[in-house]
Amino acid sequence: MRKIREVLRLKHEARLSDxxxxxxxxxxxxxxxxxxxxxxxxxxxxxxxxxxDEAALSARLYRRVVPLSSVVAPNFAAVHQELSRRGVxxxxxxxxxxxxxxxxxxxxxxxxxxxxxWRSTQELVLRAAHAPGDxxxxxxxxxxxxxxxxxxxxxxxxxVFVAVLGASNYTYAxxxxxxxxxxxxxxxxxxxxxxxxxxxxxVPDNLRSAVTRAHRYEPDINPAYQExxxxxxxxxxxxxxxxxxxxxxxEAGVLVVERWILARLRHRTFFSLGELNGVIRELLEQxxxxxxxxxxxxxxxxxxxxxxxxxxxxxxxxYEFAVWKKAKVHPDYHVEIERSYYSVPYxxxxxxxxxxxxxxxxxxFHLGKLVAAHERxxxxxxxxxxxxxxxxxxxxxxxxxxxxxxERAAQIGxxxxxxxxxxxxxxxxxxxxxxxxxxxxxxxxxxxxxxxERACERALALRSYSYRTVRTLIxxxxxxxxxxxxxxxxxxxxxxxxxx
Length: 500
Hints:
This protein is of the alpha+beta class. The strands form four sheets. Strands 1, 2, 3, 4, 5 and 8 form a six-stranded mixed beta sheet that branches. The chain has helices spanning 2-12, 18-25, 29-41, 54-61, 76-83, 90-100, 108-122, 181-195, 223-232, 248-260, 273-288, 299-307, 392-412, 414-426, 430-446, 449-462, 467-474, and strands at 135-140, 145-148, 155-165, 171-176, 201-203, 211-213, 220-221, 235-236, 323-328, 334-337, 340-343, 352-357, 361-366, 369-375, 383-384.
C-alpha cells in the first residue's frame, strides 16, 4: 500500500509518466498502469482522505468480484482434522466441498490459501530459551548406515544415536546396532561421559526403550531408564506424542548430523561398528568446532563458556545396565529366572517380586526393598539357596532326609554311599543332593541293589557322580577284561616249558 500511495502522489503531484514512476518505485510500467486503473475505477484521487487507511485503501482497490455473502466459507478446522487421516489430500477435500456447494464455493487455489492462512493462526511457535546445563535432548536419526560382514558378505544396518545440549547445541553421536534397551542406555552413558557432566533433565522421544506407556501428563518411564536417571540424578521429561517441537533441539541436531556426518559416509564401506564409530567421532569433532554462521564462536566454545560449569558432576562409577523382570515366589520360596532358581525369605511365598538382572548379579526387590541377592548363574536348572531363607523346620527336614538316604545307600553298598557323600560335599546346597540322591537310591528298586552297587563302583572309577551317569552305567554291560596272549591255550603256543 505504501507503493500505491507513492504511485498516486507521483502521478498527481509530480506529474511523472508511467515509465518514470515505475523506475522510481522499482516496478514495471504495466504494474503502475494497473494501480492507476484500479484507482480510477474506485474513484480515488490525490490527496487521499485522512480516514482512508491502508486496510480501507486495499479493500476499495481490490474488491472481490463475487460478494462474500454468496460464498460458503470452508470449515478449515474440519479440513485440518481430515488431513490427519492416511491418504486424504487437500484436492479431495476441495472436491467434496465443491460438490456440497457447487455455486457457492471458492476455487482450489483460494481453498488452499485460506487453509494455509487459518493454520498459521492456529500453530503459534514459542521460541524456547534453554538455561545452561538444563536439558539434554536425545533421539535417533532416521537415516541408517549399512555395515558389511567381510566374511559372509551380509549387510546389516545400524542406528545413529544423537544427543544435543540445549544452551550450546554441543552434539554427540554414535552408531549402535539397535534401538533396544541395552544400546539405548549405553548410548546415554557414552554421551554423558563425552560431555563430562550431567544435565538436570533428559528429553527423549516416546520409543519403547524410554517410555513403556505414553501419556500426555504422566507417562510411564521404563524401569531401567528410570534407574539410569536415579543413578545420575537426572529427570526424564519425555516429549509429548506427535509434538516434535518439544524436542526441536535434537530434531535440528539430527538434521545436522545427517547432512554433516552421514552424508559424507554414503560412498564408504564399513566392516565393523567400531570402525564406523571411529569415523563418526572424527567428523563429530569437526562439527563441534565448526563456526556458526549467525552466532559468534562454535558449539564447543559455547559449551566451554556456558554449559560446562553448569553441568552436574558425573558419579564415581558409570551406570551398569540391568534388565528388570517380574517373578512370583514359588511354594519352595524360590523364584525361577532364566531356568535357574534363587531363594528368597520364605515369608514372601506367593508374592510378586521385581527382579534386577545385571551381568553378574540377581537382585530381588519387594515393594522397593532389597530382599535377596545372588550371584547370577550361567547354567540351567541350578539352585541358589541361602539357609537364612529357609524356615527352621525345613532345615531340620533336609538334614534328616539326607541322613536317611545315606543309611539306605550304606545298606546297598559302600560305593553307592560314596557317590552320595561326594554329591553332598560338592553340591551348593542340600536340596540338590536330595533330588539326585533320591533318584540314585530308587534305581535299586527299578533294577537291583547289586547292579546299582556295580554301577556306582564304575562311576567312582570314572569320577562322574551324577544320576545320569549311574543310570547309564546300569544299562551298559561291563567290558570283559582280556587275558594276556600267553595265557591262551592253543596248539601253536609252545608254552614256557619249551624254553627251560
